[in-house]
Structure of Very-long-chain (3R)-3-hydroxyacyl-CoA dehydratase:
Amino acid sequence: MALTPHVYWAQRHDDIYLRVELTDAQNISVKVHENVLRFRAQGRGAKGQNEYEFSLEFLLPVKPEISYKSTQRQVNITLQKEQRGWWEKLTVHERKPVFLAPDFDRWLDESDAEMEIQERVRLKWLHVLTSFLGFSWIFINMTVRLFIFGQDFLYDTFHSISKVMFFCQILASVEVLNAAFGVVRTRVLPSLIQVVGRNFILFIIFGSLEEMQNKPVVFFVFYLWSSIEIIRYPFYLLSYCDIEWKTLTWLRYTVWIPLYPLGVLAEAVAVIQAIPMFDETKLFSIPLPKPIGTSVSFSYILYIYLVLMVLGLYINFCHLYKLRMRRIHTKKKAT
Ligand SMILES: CCCCCCCCCCCCC[C@@H](O)CC(=O)SCCNC(=O)CCNC(=O)[C@H](O)C(C)(C)COP(=O)(O)OP(=O)(O)OC[C@H]1O[C@@H](n2cnc3c(N)ncnc32)[C@H](O)[C@@H]1OP(=O)(O)O
C-alpha cells in the first residue's frame, strides 16, 4: 500500500514551493488537475523504501504547469499561483493535512516577501539606471565630439569611449543572468546572442587588435549600439513605475528595424577588416601538432562567426518582430 511522505511548503506572492522528503525518488508523477495536486513516486521516506503518494487541494487556483526537480535527498516542486497574492493557508481543508508542515528553510511572512521583492526591484532599477547613464554618456559624448572634431573623431572613438563601453557591456551581461533566473520576463537566447555578439566584437576584435582601434568602423558600431540603448533602458525604467509613454514604447519596438541590420553590417565590416590582421599577427592562432602543420589562424573562427552573425540576426529579428506585434499591434486592436 502507498504511504504518505513528509511534505514542507512555503510561498511567495507568485509561487508555491513544496519539498517532498524522499531520498533517491524514482518514477515520479506530479500532476495538477482541477486545482488538486497528485504526487506519486518510489523512494526512501520515513517508512523506508516504498511507494509514496499524496494529494493537495489548493486554497486558490494554481497554473497547471509544474516544475519539479529530484535531488538525492528530496523532490522540490514549484507551482505558480494563477493570481498574484498571499495565501492564508495552502489547502482548502479546514485542518492542515498531518503530513504537511511549513518549510522553515524557505519560509517568509508576507512583509518579508514584500521586502524581498522590493530589494530585487531596487537592484534591477539600479542596474538599468546605471546602464542608461553609461550609454547616454557614450551617445552624447560621441555626438558632441563629432560636431567639434568632425571626421577626425571617427579615428579616435575607441580611445575616448572604450572604457565606458567596456563597463556598460560587462553590465549588460547581467541581462542574460536575469533572463536565465527569471528575474525579468524575457527569453534567454536573444539576450545571450546580443551580449555574446557585442562582447565578441568589443573585447576580441577591437580590444585585442590595436590596429582596429583607429578604424572608423568603431564609431559606427558604438553609435548604433548606444542609439538603441538610450531608448530601451528608459522604457524599462518607466515600466518599474507602471508608466507607459506611448511614443517611447513605439520607439523601443520600431527603431531596431533600421538599427539592427545596420549594427550587424557594421560589426561584419569590423570582423572582415580584422581577418588579415589576425592572419598577419597570428594572434589567438591555434597551435597544431608538428606533423600536421604549424597553426590554424584565428581568422577561420571569424569566418564561422560571420555565418553565426547571419543566424543571430535572423533569430533576434524574429524575436523583436514578435515583440513588436505583441506590444504595438495587439494594443492597437484592443483600443
Ligand atoms: C549562443 C551564443 C551564440 C552567439 C552567436 C553570436 C552571433 C552574433 C550575432 C550578433 C548580432 C548582434 C548584433 C547587435 O549587437 C547589433 C546591435 O545591437 S545594433 C543596435 C540595434 N539593436 C537593437 O535594437 C537590439 C537591442 N536589444 C534588445 O532589444 C534586447 O537586447 C533583446 C534581447 C534583443 C530583446 O529584448 P527582450 O527580449 O528583453 O525584449 P523586451 O525589451 O520587450 O523585454 C521583454 C519583457 O521583459 C521585460 N524586461 C526585459 N528586460 C527588463 C529589465 N531589465 N527590466 C524590466 N523589465 C525588463 C520587458 O519590459 C518586457 O516585458 P513585457 O513582456 O511585460 O512587455
